[in-house]
Design a protein that fits this description.
The complex is a heterodimer of chains A (about 170) and B (about 475). Chain A is mainly β and about 170 residues long. Chain A contains one helix and 20 strands. With about 475 residues, chain B is of the alpha+beta class. About 10% of the residues of chain B have low confidence. The chains are: A mainly beta (about 170), B alpha+beta (about 475). At the A-B interface, loops of A face loops of B.
Chain lengths: ~170, ~475
């Protein structure tokens, strides 16, 4: 049974399910009911991510699963590939499946999924039903400010209503 | 109609034009304002539609909730014999009610900021972003899609103000050479038409046969292009040499990448085809879901259902529930079928049930005539009036009436199927008579002048499989 290593500013709720060798970076928020399961290998999560309720990050491989910085994993999203980059958004019930990786600035739309084994390039948007994809043309600047405001708000409000794991 | 249910027949010709069915002539759907028809025996009534001819049945019979009732003609109307007309136009995105005059001028599209994403057809939002055309980080307004993250900056659409986007686009388009050329062409042809309408020329063929306007007859000089002045030989050569349409990057391709304005939606009102009386009229405000006028058949005709169970008195409730209409049908075996009639009116309704001639089954209606009490609220009914069918509860029990509560009466039919069938369908002729609410004000005696309204409607009751 591995251990959980929390950076000083990370905010992890006690009701989150964390198993195995997990490292969580500065400023990252893990909401109630999220699961981070390092089954066969470690999971390394970067800084300032928002991992929402019932999101699942599960590592079946023995190699580490790396999650970058400034990502937003919305409710019931799922990551089980080999890792994702920075500033991605995985919307409600979006999935990164199989052995896939996600680049930077990507958006996996609601109920959309990557192919089972692909390296999704940067700036890709998966959307729609039937699922389509396109490359976004903007440089995702405005999103960062909103993300930091969101993070600030959660850091302020979440400890008032939930039990938090104290970092060592 | 393979599952048990009741469908009502509409005797209109609707979309089928003149009918060729000979049975129509004998159908008992005549209307009489002065009383019931009492001169037909049960066995001889021909139903208007042969229930075994399935495709026709589905076209001409409807569940009661789909039918309307014209109270001027006193007749049932189905969706085939009504006229639709627009009762208001609105934008489905901003819910703005567009006045009818503007609909035509705006080409049936929303005139405000409602656009569709060219990639995913989602609604575009007006956002304030960094300008790409002007360097230095100036902010501008653009249309952006939240689903596929498409941005109108990709087609160089940037706006100064967040409102009136359509107007800004029209102004930008009007300054392009194609639009200017078109406008001057239009002016020229209008002048030619005005001149030609004074003369005695046949207008259309003359214009088609000549490339240039009838300069001799109209006396106007031929047209000179104002914007496309140099012949673009290279462009023409490229167009002629192109193998297929995809090789040509024409203006049309660019248009496809532009956001389209959102089309307006209509609210429809429905009128009776014969007397143009309004049957359905919705409120013209976009947000309102109610109807100003709503003449539904269910408010005038009794609702006929095949109940699986009936409510029982307190005394009978202790026993096991009795399931009705559940006996499997077999050839030659008489099975009881319970039909429940509900009266929607506030006056009493006399109902006469007759079975049409059919080879599929022999039907014995135990209670061919009965009176349905008027509709009233639940709390106005006394519990003592419930009749669970016990034989000694007084004169309200009649042979064939299984249950009676409030405005509903359940009657029993004994059906003996004659042949195996996928779906046994019984045609029933229902004659309902009631006194009209509205008295004739001008008549001397108010009570005697009340009109007696009779409706005759055919209902097709399908009972399921016969083994």
């Amino acid at each position: 049974m591995g251990r959980l290593h929390l950076a000083p500013q990370a905010l992890v709720c006690k009701n989150a399910i964390i198993e195995g060798d997990v490292q969580i970076g500065n400023g990252t928020v893990v909401h109630v009911g999220a699961s981070i399961i390092a089954k066969n290998g470690p999971i390394i999560i970067g800084s300032n991510n928002i991992i929402s309720e019932r999101a699942v990050i599960i590592n079946h491989n023995s190699t580490p699963l790396m999650v970058g910085d400034y990502n937003l994993l919305e409710t019931e999203s799922q990551i089980e590939g080999r890792g994702i980059g920075h500033k991605n958004v995985i919307q409600v019930r979006g999935k990164v499946v199989g052995q896939s990786t996600l680049g930077n600035n990507c958006v996996v739309g609601a109920m959309c999924a990557t192919d089972p084994d692909e390296n999704v390039p940067d700036n890709t948007v998966l959307f729609g039903n039937p699922q389509a994809r396109r490359i976004r043309a903007d440089n995702n600047n405005e999103h960062l400010a909103i993300h930091m405001k969101h993070l600030e708000y959660i850091h302020e409000m979440l400890p008032r209503y939930n039990h938090i794991i104290e970092a060592e | 109609m393979s599952s048990p249910g009741v469908l009502y027949y509409c005797p209109c010709s609707g979309c089928m034009g003149a009918d060729a069915q000979p049975e129509e002539a004998h159908a008992g759907h005549a209307l009489s304002d002065d009383g019931r028809q009492t001169d037909e025996t049960h066995a001889e009534i021909a139903p208007p539609l042969d229930a075994s001819r399935r495709p026709l049945t589905t076209l001409r019979t409807w569940p009661l909730e789909k039918l309307y009732y014209c109270d001027d003609c006193s007749q049932v109307r189905c969706p085939h014999c009504v006229i639709d007309e627009p009762a208001g136009y609105h934008c489905p995105n901003c819910l703005f009610d567009v006045p009818t005059a503007s609909v035509r001028s705006e080409k049936n599209c929303c005139a405000r900021n409602c656009f569709q994403c060219p990639v995913c057809t989602h609604v575009l939002a007006v956002v304030e972003t960094e300008s790409i055309q002007h360097s230095g980080g100036r902010t501008c307004f653009a249309l952006a899609c939240s689903v596929c993250l498409w941005d109108s900056r990709e087609i160089a659409w940037e706006f100064e103000k967040p409102t009136g986007i359509s107007a800004q686009i029209e102004r930008a388009r009007a300054s392009q050479p194609a639009a200017r050329e078109y406008a001057s062409l239009l002016d020229h042809w209008r002048a030619v038409q005005r001149a030609a309408s004074g003369a005695t020329l046949p207008p259309a063929p003359a214009f088609k046969s000549r490339v240039q306007p009838a300069a001799g007859a109209a006396g106007l000089p031929s047209y000179i292009a104002t914007c496309y002045t140099e012949p673009d030989r290279e462009h023409m050569a490229a167009l002629l040499a192109a193998k297929d349409a995809t090789a040509v990057s024409s203006v049309d391709n660019m248009r496809r990448r532009e956001p389209q304005r959102i089309r307006l939606h209509m609210k429809l009102a429905r009128r009776c085809r014969t007397c143009h009386h309004i049957l359905i009229k919705p409120e013209s405000k976009a947000q309102a879901t109610r109807f100003k006028i709503q003449l539904m058949a269910a408010n005038f005709l009794p609702t006929i259902t095949l109940p699986p169970m009936l409510p029982r008195t307190r005394a009978a409730a202790a026993a096991a529930p009795e399931l009705l209409n559940a006996t499997p049908l077999r050839v030659g075996v008489t099975a009881p079928v319970v039909l429940r009639f509900a009266n929607p009116l506030y006056t009493e309704m006399d109902v006469d049930v007759a079975v049409g001639r059919t080879d599929a089954a022999l039907t014995d209606i135990l209670a061919p005539q009965f009176t349905l009490p008027p509709f009233a609220e639940i709390w106005e009914y006394d519990e003592d009036e419930e009749d669970g069918g016990s034989p000694d509860s007084g004169p309200s029990t009649r042979r064939g009436i299984v249950h009676q509560h409030g405005n509903r009466i359940a009657i029993r039919l004994d059906v003996t199927p004659q042949a195996p069938a996928d779906s046994l369908t019984l045609p029933l002729r229902i004659t309902c008579t009631h006194m009209d609410d509205l008295a004739d004000i001008d008549a001397p005696d108010l009570n005697a002048s009340r009109r007696v309204v009779t409706n005759v409607v055919w209902a097709y009751v399908s009972l399921g499989t016969v083994n």
